[in-house]
Amino acid sequence: MVIHKPSRLLPLLLALVFITGCTQARFNPVSTAPLPQPGLTPERIILNLTQTPATSQAVTWRTTAIVTTPKAQIAIATGSPVFRTKATTLTALSESIKSDDAPLVFYHSVTFKDLAPNTLYAYRVGDDTHWSEWNQFKTASATPQPFSFIYFGDPQDEVGSMCARTFRTAFKTAPDAAFWHFVGDMVNNGDKDAEWQELFDAFGWIPRTTPMILLPGNHAYPDKRFVKGDAFKIFPQWRPQFTLPQNGPKGLEETAYAIDYQGVRFIMLNGNEKLQEQAEWLNTVLANNPQPWTIAAIHQPIYATGRKRNDQQRQALFVPVFDKYSVDLVLQGHEHSYARTQRLFNGQPATAPHKGTVYITSVCGPKAYPANHRYDHLTETTGTGRQLFQVIRVNSKSLTYEAFDSAGNPYDRVELIK
Fold first, then answer.
1. What CA–CA distance (Å, rounded) separates 299 from 237?
2. Can you name the CATH fold of 43-138?
3. Sequence-ordered strand ranges (E) for 223-341
């Protein structure tokens, strides 16, 4: 007698029929949202601080296809998804740009205004059909309060493969940082879209929640050796990608500017052009400065510690102004090495009654130059061959500066006391 085992196929078929029936009953094809169209999904979303960070916030993004109704939505964030029902919708400004290595793309920007200080907001960007995820940011306090930020020297080379770990370690080390501060040379060729894509890939989602302030390095411009006169101007990729303050000298909008943040006046200087105009503007900005701390930034170091460079022009223009108004820190890049000076006044270690200024040069990318010993008598720490980031914590009484390498190891530290 032959005994047939029950077939395993029948239960599977029955289960499939049951699951298919449930699926058809639960999801009505008529109510399915339209499929996303290629090129309309927001990408390269980045928050930038405005000159009034307690009550406003800027966001920029791009699409690779034209969007007829670009917009952003914002609401006070809560722990419940109901916050969406109270969102305000704003129309974005748009501009197009074409790079030699990329087709025409479209950048969109919105500045959220009339925000409440020290408040968590949720926002998203897109159009009526294609939206980003909801992200969050917090406005600054309207009064001096303790905060921290992260300062980076040049990423520039191998940004996608080598700088991503630096950014991620920095975020893990100081997740409470109010913003990130870059001092130039974000990429090696500022007119190449593929290199900017590398940068945003390395950032990941961080610039969607952590605002960034940036200034241009020399690689955001053509090479001065080959371009002269009016042809020497910042690559057209810079301004569309970011929405930065325009309160600096005329002609340097979004490349030289000032921001007051919770007791600190930040001064961004463009070290590539119009230096005399900036020195005059700097004197004006610092002459009426109610903030207890002042931090300036410029790409090219005032006291160069890398290779054979020694930029005495910037020393002559800016050091007298830094000294006059007792600037606390000057943050720099460009040299692909590390250096931190003593407190300096008039190019020498400061003595009473002068407080002096600390000048710091750093690099977060893998490119490294040997440290030059020209200013050993002025520096407390020099080094090279490390990918670094710096966490700076500020309160009314002290400023604590700590440098770390990409592995998270402490590298340097100093504390300034008011």
1. 18
2. Immunoglobulin-like (2.60.40)
3. 257-261, 264-268, 293-297, 329-332, 338-341
Burial (CB < 10 A; 0-12, 13-18, 19+), residue 56, is: middle
CA distances from 368 to 157, 334, 364 (A): 10, 10, 10
8 A C-beta contact, residue 57 and residue 47: yes
**Angle, in degrees to the nearest 10, between helices 193-203 and 164-173:** 30
**Cα–Cα distance, 345 to 383 (Å, whole number):** 23
Residues 40 and 56: beta-carbon distance below 8 Å? no
The pTM assigned to this predicted structure is 0.90
Structure confidence by residue, pLDDT tens digits, 48-68: 999 999 999 999 999 999 999
Higher pLDDT: 18 or 33? It is 33
- The enclosing H or E element of 149 equals strand 147-152
Distance CA 144, CA 263 (A): 4
Q: What is the pLDDT of residues 262-303, one digit of tens each?
A: 999 999 999 999 999 999 999 999 999 999 999 999 999 999
Q: Which top CATH class is 147-417?
A: alpha beta
Spell out the domain ranges in the chain: 43-138, 147-417
Residue with tokens 């002609």: 251
Amino acid symbol at 309 = R
How large a percentage of the chain has pLDDT more than 70?
90
Task: Give CA–CA dist 181/403, Å, rounded.
Answer: 14
- What the block records as the tokens of 151 is 């300062």
Query: Helix (H, G, I), strand (E, B), or coil: what is residue 327?
Result: coil
